Amino acid sequence: MLGAACLAAIAPAARADELRTLDGWPSVAAALSGDNLVYLRSAAAPAKGYTVYRTEAWRLPIQPALSLFTGVRETPITIRTSAGRTTAGMLSGGAGGAFTLAATGKGFAPPVIWCCDPKGDEVVLESDSRPDAPQTIAVGTDGAATRFLVGDAEAGFELTSVNVVGPTPTQAADYVTTKFAFPGKPVRGLAAIGTGLVAWADRPGPPQVSVGAPGPTGLSGVQALAQPGRVLGVWAGGTTFVALAKAPDGLELARYDLPSLQRTVIWTFRKPPPAVAVGGGAVTFVDGRNVIFTAPGRAPKGLMRAKGPVVALATDGQRVAVFDRRVVNRRQKTAISLLPVPAA
Amino acid sequence: MRRALVALAAVVAVLAIAGVAEARPVVAIQDDKIHTIQPADMAKRVQVLAATGTRWTRVDIHWNDVAKQRPASPTDPNDPAYDWGIYDTVLKDLQARGIQAVATFYGTPAWATPGGAANAAPPPADAAAFAGALARRYNGQFTPKGAQQPLPEVRRIGVWNEPNIAQFYSPQCRQRTDGAWVPVSPTTYGDLLRQAYARIKAANKRAIVIGGEAGPVGTQSRGACASGQDSSVGTLQFAALLRSHLGSGRAPLDVWGQHLYPIGPPARAVAFPAWNSLPKLMRTVDRLHPSGKMPIYVTETSYHTSYNRFHRYFVTEKQQAAWLTQTYTVAARNPRVQLVVWFNLQDNPFWTGGLLRADGTKKPSYTRFQTLARRPITQPGWEPQA
């Protein structure tokens, strides 16, 4: 039972174990990293005659057993610019609170930053001021490496891998970095990086998703996976990736797992979902305001019905974080809910 | 009578215009990696600097590089423990290209403090002795052994870089017996400044001592020292506490150095410290100057064109170019600002405020700077060398 037809069967909104709110309706990207929820919050701060746009990376510790947010939020990274409006950004959770982000926006090439070295300092992996600098279109974590895909259709693409876990280098240049030409021509939203995989759809291109395994010198074992229609989105986490593609009866969200790469349709939408997250073998997504959890061998399960539009999701297979926009006492608020995954 | 008044008004107007011209700050740029260049490549690097049109630069002199061992006679620049080699080369090559230098010394040698950290607040007497040696070596009359000519004069000497920031000067704060953290850097720095001033003046009576060179730290919203001993101390609070510590009488500085990295356009950025809030700072430091009007050197300013971890605010290259021009226009409105140093010549992974990208290509700001730097210097006392 897939898609809108089964929404009525979804359980009433699950109680959030803990809920916090952000002021306003910023653009948000989220990830789980060990026992931490990490999110990017992007918004404008208008001043007299000019505007400073901000993207802040926030990290909240989570108590593992109860999934409660504990302690104080910290902001290990704050990006400020007057170059152009910042958008939600791209975020990939690592281990133990580590994460990689790309701060996206109009008018500048996204800096790629890894947080953090053993001293707690951020490491800038990519930062290019040239007006025609290539764009970062995907970031991901693969064990000890953080990877990001940079480029455009004209100049070509390059996949960079940086071994950020190891000794205590003080400069990004000291990390073991490998780069190689990437064979695809995706755009942002159509490429995703997981553990031992890069999945993408070319734009323009045939209705297919390609997947390959990044190695020291290039992608190996590239396979093309046929889709029922034009590909609209690709997400990855761990050894799983999902693709959203047009199909005769709607938009199909299909799941693939290494190494089998067998196609499993997990949901059918009438319109594109506002948020999808993949992690820990689980896939969560939003249909309307219903947050739905799926995992191998389990029927899709409704986790909650959000009170407002969902703007970001994160999951590690054990927990799901939901960000939705609400109006509370006539004020715009973005609520964060952290939900335990229901037992099978 | 009326005609006389009109004539007087015209004269005043002309003088005012002339005054503005005189007040125009010196346009300078720093290459913070210049001391890392191999001597054989130095002339080529200085040529890159000279091509910007600058006739003034700022050179960081790292005490911990010059004095790796404790000198037996620390005020004597000839002490065998001192290795001035790279700085002699830098200054001679700059002079050969018609570029004069303002020098700032900092960096504590490992032997000077128990912990051995370069950012440790040094014993004032040790740092002052080095300042004396530096001022003597570059007083314009010092000829090293085996040389034919005296070394260039460096008349303007800055005492430490950003002593209100723990990255350069630590501790910033200490814990009182009641558990509260309070700023300590203004007092320890005041002691250092007082002793260094005496040594520098003894070595070169014409020397101009730059104090402060304060980092751009705004008022702390959570109160001073909220993060313990390595909190930064807000520029204004640092200046006020330094003033209190130094007390009445002639203060041991001739100029206040300030670093400005505004968030927003130069004329409109209001966060402290910025060009618009500079008068507030000046009111605080004016009482440290016998005239009641402390001259200001802005020994660092720039706009970064991509994200880096030391300056988390960036603009486009086009904005940087426009705001560079505006920086010097805004600075010229304040006649007390005598020098504005653009920091830095070339980008590196930690600093992207350069006129040149890391690969050496020119940003749009390069030609803007060149245009400004090539104008005649109108600031008295800053004329090009013959």
The count of β-strands of chain A is: 29
- Oligomer status: heterodimer
Strand content of chain B: 5-15%
Class based on secondary structure composition and strand pairing of chain A: mainly beta
Number of helices of chain A: 0
Gross morphology of chain A is: globular
Distance N to C terminus of chain A: 17 Å
Return the structural class of chain B. Answer: alpha/beta
Q: End-to-end span of chain B in angstroms? A: 47 Å
Number of helices of chain B: 10
Largest interface: A-B, 31 and 25 residues
How is the secondary structure organized here?
The complex is a heterodimer of chains A (344) and B (386).
Chain A: E1 18-23, E2 27-33, E3 36-47, E4 50-63, E5 68-69, E6 74-81, E7 90-93, E8 99-102, E9 112-115, E10 123-126, E11 135-142, E12 145-152, E13 156-163, E14 176-182, E15 191-194, E16 197-200, E17 208-214, E18 219-226, E19 231-237, E20 240-247, E21 250-257, E22 264-269, E23 276-279, E24 282-287, E25 290-294, E26 301-305, E27 310-315, E28 319-328, E29 331-340
Antiparallel strand pairs in A: 1-29, 2-3, 3-4, 4-5, 4-6, 7-8, 8-9, 9-10, 11-12, 12-13, 13-14, 15-16, 16-17, 17-18, 19-20, 20-21, 21-22, 23-24, 24-25, 25-26, 27-28, 28-29
Chain B: H1 2-23, E1 26-30, H2 39-50, E2 56-62, H3 63-66, H4 85-96, E3 100-106, H5 124-137, E4 156-159, E5 173-175, E6 181-183, H6 185-203, E7 208-214, H7 235-246, E8 255-260, H8 278-285, E9 296-301, E10 313-314, H9 317-332, E11 337-343, H10 364-373
Parallel strand pairs in B: 1-11, 2-3, 3-4, 4-7, 7-8, 8-9, 9-11
Antiparallel strand pairs in B: 5-6
Helix pairs in contact in B: 2-4, 5-6, 6-7, 7-8, 9-10
Report on this model:
The complex is a heterodimer of chains A (344) and B (386). Chain A is built from no helices and 29 strands. Chain A has 344 residues and is mostly beta strands. In chain A, the strands form 7 sheets. In chain A, strands 2, 3, 4, 5 and 6 form a 5-stranded antiparallel β-sheet that branches. The model of chain A is unreliable at 1-17 (pLDDT under 50). Chain B has 386 residues and is of the alpha/beta class. Helices cover 33% and strands 15% of the residues of chain B. In chain B, the strands form 2 sheets. An 8-stranded parallel β-sheet of chain B has the order 1-11-9-8-7-4-3-2. Chain B has a two-stranded antiparallel ribbon with strand order 5-6. In chain B, helix 5 (124-137) links the parallel strand 3 and strand 4 (156-159). Chain B is globular. The model of chain B is unreliable at 11-21 (pLDDT under 50). The chains are: A mainly beta (344), B alpha/beta (386). The interface between A and B is medium-sized, with 31 and 25 residues.
